[in-house]
TrEMBL record:
Pfam families: Pkinase_fungal (PF17667). Gene3D superfamilies: Transferase(Phosphotransferase) domain 1 (1.10.510.10). This is Fungal-type protein kinase domain-containing protein. InterPro entries: Kinase-like_dom_sf, Pkinase_fungal. Residues 247-260 have a biased composition (Polar residues). It comes from Suillus placidus.
Length: 748
């Protein structure tokens, strides 16, 4: 695709064959609006996720896709790929005709594809070949496979035009080369009746190769990005010198059922025009051989190279847009084409899986099977969550959700997804938290003390190895019964539901190593609506913040470790004419007796994490989480600048870089100190900075003394009990804390 060629908050970088280079593994903010983070600045986070891509054999991926589009998707059907390869042969060999097309034109289109030319000249022949193949495959029946899905009616469409999407108040701009989408959606920009067969033929011949305007991201089933030179894809594709079609090499972890039918598929006999395709010249510049993603040949990079995204990262940005456009998405598929090889990329909240490549000139049957499977996908097979049904309420986009509850019967939720207060997520893997205003007749009848518009739904992907947030909140609620500092200061969970399809299932089917590590399931939790602490200033801010700290320390001593303190997780509400602070968001919390594995779970929000946790050792999970780490996060949440917001760059750096910026802040407060801050808040800010700085200096001094007095080999006692009350007392005993408490509670 081409550069956007216009200004915008976030534009896709221009195409380039930029080499990938390693970055850190930051723990990132879950919401782009947390501290003003711009969508354009999430590229490094997308790249970090791409670098963790898992690999699989393409035959294993095709087998999984076929099984999903079969009549019995939950049954093991090891012969599906072999049967579909055999049935695809007549299409490959030009022996199939329909009222609109004949399959012999596929070879003609690919003959045009390999002719030299500029990049966008390759779009039309690829689109022609794909759409002709889809038309020919539509009427082919394979025992056990579904028919093509009329409600989707997939077609390949040129795009390469700006696509816009708003994330909170931030607009992104992307330009995918080609897209797969429902035919009805493809026709809409051209005002064509998609039910007219002749007009369908006209669209395939002309409009499919034109660039439509204003396509919404929610309609895109998959993006296809093309390159004329290989970039750094993790799985090698077959060398062009190999004239014989055949299966890719089977990994050692490949299921035996897949390995068995690969041998059979190698014996398939192809006829003209497939043999003609084998002899066609390779499109674009010659390729010296297979490449790998993260070990490119050495190259001196210039400044421009460092700002350009390679195709894998760019495709990750498209996936982030697709995730954001649809509520509760289970997974996504995208396709990357380099010359005559196509790779399948699968995205879900556990991570990314990339298949080995299909050379669609030398191994046309496998490309046909890929299209055959996708053509039979229902919307839920494309990853759309069928539980969230799109609807309109008073002319605004909403989603409806109904589910049977053993105690309440049918629970109805109207999710107001176009509401300005909705908080969305932008990214690939992780919790992907969305917070949406919600109304519910069922829950309004049960909770009569809550107004109908005072509920929100939290939708996120929790790691299965963790104690769930509802279980954590059950423990928190028990603590609240006996501790006044916790009572009224915790979120009120009204209802929750856990979906049962783990992300690990496809990894087990594909034979991916460690398939359950970091596995996730989707949760929906409904809470009473709260107000954010960021609305408050001065003593009002301090009082809510103070209540959250006192709630937090009680929970800590009772065995509930929050582990994700940030301004976004401190809320408040009115009760008896007073602001009541609430410590919110327990999906990263842990219990003292919970010793389960953590997988690849993110354990905080970078700008507010303690300095020790932002080190490389902290990011590797080698440090025991201490109370002072959470308290340090509270202290770093005091300063909430407005205007230029000089501290926003903390949120766009990786963890180690953020640590350096925070150290610079602690050592040069005068450069950041706001001139209009409340006098006592200013005093308290200085004390917080001083305590954090001096505490760090003392620990560094103790380390130096150990080396000087006992030798570097002796290690400190990490199991030494922590003085929780003593560390908090350093702050609560200051004159500023006492004075601010008095000002916040004049009647006490």
């Amino acid at each position: 695709m081409s550069p956007a060629g216009e200004t915008g908050t976030s534009s896709t970088p221009p195409r380039a064959n930029a080499q990938a280079h390693a970055v850190g593994l930051p723990v990132i903010s879950d919401n782009i609006s947390l501290v003003g983070v711009n969508v354009k600045q999430v590229g490094p986070w997308i790249k970090r996720d791409v670098e963790q891509t898992k690999e699989c054999n393409v035959d294993a991926m095709l087998q999984v896709l076929l099984q999903r589009s079969s009549c019995a998707p939950d049954a093991i059907q090891p012969e599906l790929l072999q049967k579909c390869l055999e049935v695809a042969l007549p299409v490959c060999n030009g022996q199939v005709s329909t009222a609109l097309v004949k399959s012999s034109d596929i070879a003609l289109a690919f003959h045009e594809y390999v002719l030299p030319g500029v990049e966008n000249k390759y779009y039309s022949p690829f689109i022609k070949a794909t759409n002709i193949a889809l038309a020919c495959l539509e009427g082919i029946n394979v025992d056990g496979m579904r028919a093509a899905v009329p409600a989707v009616d997939m077609i390949c469409q040129q795009h390469d035009m700006p696509m816009y999407q708003t994330h909170q108040t931030v607009k992104s701009t992307r330009r995918p080369d080609l897209v797969l989408l429902p035919f009805k959606s493809a026709c809409a920009p051209f005002e064509i009746n998609n039910k007219d067969a002749q007009k369908r033929k006209a669209h395939m011949d002309k409009n499919a190769m034109a660039s439509p305007k204003n396509l919404p991201w929610k309609d895109i089933l998959a993006c296809i990005e093309r390159r004329t030179k290989p970039e750094y894809l993790p799985v090698d594709h077959p060398k062009v010198e190999d004239p014989a079609p055949g299966p890719s090499q089977t990994p050692a972890t490949q299921p035996a059922s897949v390995a068995a039918h690969q041998t059979k598929s190698a014996k398939l006999q192809f006829h003209l025009p497939v043999l003609l395709l084998h002899s066609l010249p390779r499109p674009g510049p010659a390729n010296a051989g297979p490449t790998t993603l993260w070990n490119p040949p050495p190259k001196k990079k210039n400044k421009t190279d460092e700002t350009e995204a390679d195709v894998t990262v760019q495709m990750g940005l498209y996936a982030a847009e697709m995730f954001a456009a649809n509520l509760g998405v289970n997974h996504l598929l995208n396709l990357i084409v380099v010359d005559d090889v196509i790779w399948i990329w699968y995205y879900d909240r556990q991570g990314i899986i990339q298949s080995s490549g299909i050379n669609f000139l030398q191994d046309l049957p496998r490309f046909m099977v890929l299209l055959y499977a996708l053509q039979r996908f229902k919307l839920e097979d494309w990853g759309r969550n069928e539980a969230f049904l799109s609807s309109q309420i008073e002319g605004k986009q909403c989603h409806e959700f109904e589910i049977e509850d053993e105690n309440l019967g049918t629970v109805d939720l109207q999710l107001h997804t176009s509401h300005p207060e909705r908080v969305t997520h932008y990214g690939l893997q992780g919790r992907a938290t969305n917070v949406v205003p919600v109304t519910s007749d069922t829950l309004s009848k049960k909770y009569t003390h809550i107004q109908k518009d005072e509920m929100v739904a939290k939708i996120f992907w929790g790691e299965t190895s963790r104690t769930s947030e509802p279980e954590i909140l059950k423990k928190v609620k028990e603590i609240a019964k006996v501790h006044a500092s916790v009572k009224d200061h915790i979120p009120e969970l009204l209802w929750h539901h856990t979906f049962t399809n783990p992300t690990s299932a496809i990894r087990e089917a594909l034979g991916v190593p460690e398939p359950t590590k970091g596995s996730r399931v989707l949760y929906i939790l409904v809470f009473r609506k709260l107000k954010p602490i960021t609305e408050l200033h001065g003593t009002e801010f301090f009082e809510v913040w103070r209540q959250c700290i006192l709630c937090h320390i009680t929970l800590w001593k009772e065995g509930v470790y929050h582990r994700d303190v940030s301004p976004g997780n401190m809320m408040w509400y009115w009760k008896d004419g007073k602001r009541i602070g609430v410590l919110n968001d327990y999906d990263l919390s842990s219990l003292a007796d919970d010793l389960g594995p953590r997988g690849n779970e993110r354990t905080g929000t970078v700008p507010f994490m303690a300095l020790d946790l932002l080190t490389e050792a902290g990011q590797r999970g080698e440090l025991k989480h201490l109370y002072r780490y959470d308290l340090e996060s509270f202290m770093q949440g005091v300063l909430l600048p407005t205007g230029s917001r000089p501290l926003d760059e903390w949120a766009t750096s990786n963890a180690v870089a953020c640590r350096g910026k925070k150290l610079a802040f602690l050592n040069s407060l005068e450069a950041y100190y706001p001139s209009d801050i409340n006098e006592y808040m200013g005093h308290f800010l200085v004390i917080c900075v001083r305590v954090l700085r001096e505490n760090g200096a003392r620990r560094s001094s103790r380390f130096e003394e150990r080396i000087l007095n006992r030798g570097a080999m002796e290690q400190p006692n990490d199991e030494e009990p922590e003085d929780v009350d003593g560390f908090l007392h350093i702050f609560t005993n200051t004159p500023s804390w006492v004075k601010l408490t008095e000002l916040s509670n004049p009647s006490q």
